[in-house]
Known about the structure:
29% of the residues lie in helices and 18% in strands. The chain is an alpha/beta fold.
Amino acid sequence: MNYRILSAFALFILIFGCTTRSPEETPFKSSLFQYDAEIDGIIEQMTLEEKVDMLHGKTMFTSAGVERLGIADLKYADGPFGIREELQPHGWMPLGWELDKATFFPTGSALAATWSKEIAYKYGTGMAREARLRGKDMILGPAINIQRIPTGGRTYEYLSEDPFLSSQLSVGYTKGVQDNGAAVCLKHYALNNQENNRGTVDVIVDERTMREIYLPPFKAAVQEADAYGVMSAYNKVNGWWCAENDVLLNQILRDEWGFGGMVISDWGGTHSTVESVTHGLNVEMPDDKFMGPALLDSVNSGAVSEEVINKRVREILRVRKAIAPVPEEEANQVMTSQPEQQQIAYEVACKSIVLLKNEGVLPLDLSGKPTIAVIGDNATRIMGSGGIGAGVKTLYEITPLEGLKSKIGDKAELVYSQGYVPVELDYARIFGNKPKEQIEKEDREKAILNKKLNAEAVELAKKANVVLFFGGNNRAVETEANDRENIFLPSGQDELIREIAAVNPNVITVLVSGAPNDLNTVKPASKALLLSWFNGTEGGNALADVLLGNISPSGRLPFTLPIKLEDSPAYALGNYPQGQKKGDVFVGLVEETDKDITGENTGDNKNDPNKAYYSEGSLVGYRWFDTKELPVMYPFGYGLTYTKFEYDGLASDKEEYGADDVITLSFTLKNSGSVVADEVPQVYVHRINPSVEWPYKELKGFSRTTLEAGEQKTVSLEIPVKNLRYWNEETHSWENDLCDIELLVGASAGDIKLNKKVSLK
């Protein structure tokens, strides 16, 4: 270890201090440790070369076992919302199989919009079943980083801006996968909250913020669901690459949380040999640049002890023992996508759709056989693929127009117009390799075509009784390796919807997006407004059922929709973006370029593209807007239904609670409307007289509840007082802030119905 590394390590210790388990925490011990005695016997039989061979990629999506000892290779399934098609062993070209067509499950933000741990479990079940049909051992998911910026390229993959909601869904997904014979690989650990410069950026974050906001989903999945795998992120955290970060991988993940499984690098995300293997990385993917021959040399020279190699091999073998390999002759014998999984995808999609606005135009009235103009490229756009990174080769994908045609039949006349020119994936434009003259020429041509499509759409709208406008983003707009520059609707959609609303006031807008959009134009121009996500194989059928009233919408926003992007915390404080976008580590890997795009971090100013300062602290998402008293377009947790709900009678089992107690609260929830629907009551905690700083309120409980028309239920929720602790940066431990608190029960962060004061003593 050279002087530079020692200096960086010293700096990291100054920032983080010594990480120790809080004495009041009950240590978690993974079930994977049960295999250690047997594994020790296996390791004794292995040569050093065989051990090192297990610590790096064998092919693009496998790492080696030891055939001589009957230890099968580990096979990885990419990615978190559907099992990726089969690729060439050492490249990214598809093999062109037929049976590898999979179910496209709704993406992460759609799953999060269900606000249901139970649905997340089903989701994981479906993913595992299809992974096993393909002979896969470990799913590269769930993707559980916090949605820190509205423009994040992978917001659609991630679960929420809130650590509690993300944690609950992460636990459900993980249990669903691992109860059905596959392992998860939680990603991306940790603080991978932007795509721009993700392969070079150093996240500068204080310890309390990291512990309270960004690590809880990982901790919950490890300790509550016994996750078997973790993927290290591309970025640095306080000076250390995540793939060689001793604090994250050894001190926190293994020593403190009790994780027993294996850590693999993101593809191309390994940067060293000695530091990576000693600081906790098990497998370098997808090659052996650092943890192949170089690692063998390091052991032979004494730079790395064989004891460290044995430890890393043991952690891999634990997962191999827990996950039975699928015999080669049994894998890939039937179509990957199966009806049971398609039904799960449909259920997730149905419960994810968020109704933001409804001026009485939904459900659709088909009496009199109306003419319905369906306008917008997203009405027919396939979303299973189309961006950089993981996609799904689907067996089928029901688009919104197909779903409407199927469900409506001859009860209405559906007429379609594309409306606008969609954004298509353009690597050269994204990464600055296309000449300015060519870009200008292409933009002129697109503008001419867009004007023509706009005019056709407006003419169609004039003749229709109702307009269904399908806008939003697509998978080329929201994509791995690239954050959006803004949240405006692409392709001139705002101007188009103004023109449509001018000739037909009965506009229902459906936004097909995985992340926030600016709604300042579309909201007033629409009689109804829905967010339907990148909603999977059955997305079109689910949407049609919601529009027609076959089911009541029940999705809730997993993030805040701001009035304007500049209101959101990282933008308001100038913490993002940080200078110029550079090349991307994964794209460089896919293009098989030898160009070094990792670089070194230089400078300490906020314009340094390689530094991300998280000075907003815990004020992420609704915490920021509530604490700063800033208005929003739609609040976190928001969503309408086709009925009304009444809240009443909030009570707690006690008035005072000790540090080891559990707050039990209950209230009455009534469906006062005429249709069955789900409500998602949410419980937030507001500290009245705290000893340390807190956001104005924080989500600490929720429950998806189904009520028939006129039905009334008592809803009970529990909040362990230990879940209200804060991370003390002086003692490096969780501590109680015993103060008076207000329990806030409501339909969203912006709609509190009931409140009650209790005391923590």
